[in-house]
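cache lookup: miss for this entity combination. No prior model stored, computing from scratch. Input as submitted by user K.M.:
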Amino acid sequence: MGTGLSRREKERHRQRGDMLAAALELFSEKGYHHVSMKAIAKRAEFALGTIYRFFSNKEDLYKAAMLEKAGEYHRTLTDVLSGEQGVLAALNAYITAKARIFAPNIEIFYLYFAETGGVSFNLRAGLHEEIGLLHDDLIKRLASVMDKGVRARILRDLDPHDMAVALEGLTNAFLLSWLKDPERHPYEESINTISKLFLEGSLAA
Amino acid sequence: MGTGLSRREKERHRQRGDMLAAALELFSEKGYHHVSMKAIAKRAEFALGTIYRFFSNKEDLYKAAMLEKAGEYHRTLTDVLSGEQGVLAALNAYITAKARIFAPNIEIFYLYFAETGGVSFNLRAGLHEEIGLLHDDLIKRLASVMDKGVRARILRDLDPHDMAVALEGLTNAFLLSWLKDPERHPYEESINTISKLFLEGSLAA
Amino acid sequence: MGTGLSRREKERHRQRGDMLAAALELFSEKGYHHVSMKAIAKRAEFALGTIYRFFSNKEDLYKAAMLEKAGEYHRTLTDVLSGEQGVLAALNAYITAKARIFAPNIEIFYLYFAETGGVSFNLRAGLHEEIGLLHDDLIKRLASVMDKGVRARILRDLDPHDMAVALEGLTNAFLLSWLKDPERHPYEESINTISKLFLEGSLAA
Amino acid sequence: MGTGLSRREKERHRQRGDMLAAALELFSEKGYHHVSMKAIAKRAEFALGTIYRFFSNKEDLYKAAMLEKAGEYHRTLTDVLSGEQGVLAALNAYITAKARIFAPNIEIFYLYFAETGGVSFNLRAGLHEEIGLLHDDLIKRLASVMDKGVRARILRDLDPHDMAVALEGLTNAFLLSWLKDPERHPYEESINTISKLFLEGSLAA
DNA sequence: AATGAATGAGGGTTCATTCAT
DNA sequence: GATGAATGAACCCTCATTCAT
């Protein structure tokens, strides 16, 4: 018993997911203001009014879609970092995972990036903060890996938090560069460059 | 002495500048779609119609405002790089200048960043490309400085273009980190970290 | 019995009709450019946006309103001409019907007339042509009646098409004259005059 | 002695004429509402403000332009009618003159026609009346010619005023028909038809 | 007297949101 | 609960008119 309810809840959750997916697709294709609720309803194959039973307004839907994706990314990246592997393997896995996540979704990356960066304005008040928290958490986890690496004398002896921020900046920059012009600038080489910057005595080796 | 014409032209230019300034303020405060032409007119203290004597539509005004600022930033940063100084001095000056430029204009930085990154959609077609060109030029100039540094055995022996991209990513990341929480994370320390990542034998010293 | 669908369709058609009626009223009262969509919405007792569910823009609404009325007039007049009556009866019926149609709608007559004439400019491209086709059709039908009359030696032996055009011109002129000053110039006398001009040997009688 | 003033007045009159000509050209090309005062100023090669020294507003300019042309037409047509010629010659001259006047100016004809007809709305209040007076005067003069013709037993014995109105309607209709499709419907034949309708015993001859 | 830059009311249209069915 | 027609506020832009130069 309660299965009836449960089934209904599952169904509701599935519908919500369909809406979020449709919304995210359209938002990343055209940008927030160029997507109408009607278009989202159509893409998601729901009636316009039905969307409003799940999200109180467009704003809310946007936030939910972004947070959904951000949460997914965050989960993937933290999973990668928390594996039972060595420091170098973890960082390599992180860098690779980030590329794997964003490559097929460059638009979403931009969106996410803009939010992470801050191009969010009052409009998305709240979203900014929530994504900020995720980002802070990620930095903290990265810093902890860095710390481990420094103590193991694998990484250069710099402030772990700074190194985490640096890694974020480097991966973002190389990702963008790669996505802009995939041929001219293979991502693998970027990984090498990033590694060398962090590794202790890398030149000596 | 042509002062008649010159005065009128100067006046026109001043008005245009006022409009661009007002537009930029508002766009960075609220985002493109949340700013009405009426609001820009009011902020700039012109009549609505007057704006249309200078810019053919909102789109045009936005592009002009962004390009104006982007050009200004680009000029400042390339000036810094082309001084008759050593490699290290040049890079330090660059990093500092970037902070000096963006610190008071974090919103504009986000805007610029978003455009550099790509959150621009069809809407701003053209702008994206033009800013992209400026950015490419900057990278090229940075790479040339890096090359000089590598050949002088001051910097690590990595691909100069990659190092340029890396520097961009690092400065952006640290700037954002600093601007988010100025107390906790002094920008000066970031500069140290950045330096150390690029300097040859920095750990040995 | 499909009544559900039918009812909705009927409702839709009724709404469309109300909008067209309101639009036609206002357009004939004040002219195309002096009527705002808001005013039409108000007169038709719909919200502004609702009108746009039926007509894609003001232009479209105008054309639809004109064509609606033109079609109605055309139907009425061709019906009159195609009755199983004699030539004289047909022409008399035509002249009378025209008066009956336009008398209560002098403004619409002007509008129709202007379109028939050509005061439409690019703006109403298309409408002009469509109304022109209706007009040509009417002339052709009139000419055919004239032809019958000529062959029956009831009407003067002139070119039927010319006679049709002439009848149009005469009825228009007398209608306008009558509508301008109904007392001074009874329409019945106009009919007599028109008849006499076309009848063979009318003076001899 | 007054020559100075006179010269200035002449100059003013010439300027006024240039403005009216430019305005009429544009109005007939595009229609009242699609012509801006700026465009008229440019076509007339005057400054925008200067136009307002001659006409208090756009409305006023339109009326003046229409009345100017209407007066010109009226003068031409009444001149033709008041010549020392026979009735038939006068009517023929009238019909020909009307074609000569309007053929190169079909748009103005439509405009004039619309005003004569009545598509004028509140907007052009006044203009309508004034053109109406000219039109009435023309009808009266035509009627007087008709009367002479009837008394001379050249024309059919119908009410002269009706015949005048009829002639107006016929010439308008044939003119429009001709202007719409000049090849298919030579105006000369129309003249024949018109003549036959009015001439006494024309079929007998 | 001539100029044309500046003004701002007003119009067409879109679209987030509501609510009767 | 689901639907989508109806609503109307708000936006971009034009252009007749004014007035400082």
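stored under new cache key. Residues 41, 46-50, 53 of chain B lie near DNA strand E (CB under 10 Å from a C1').
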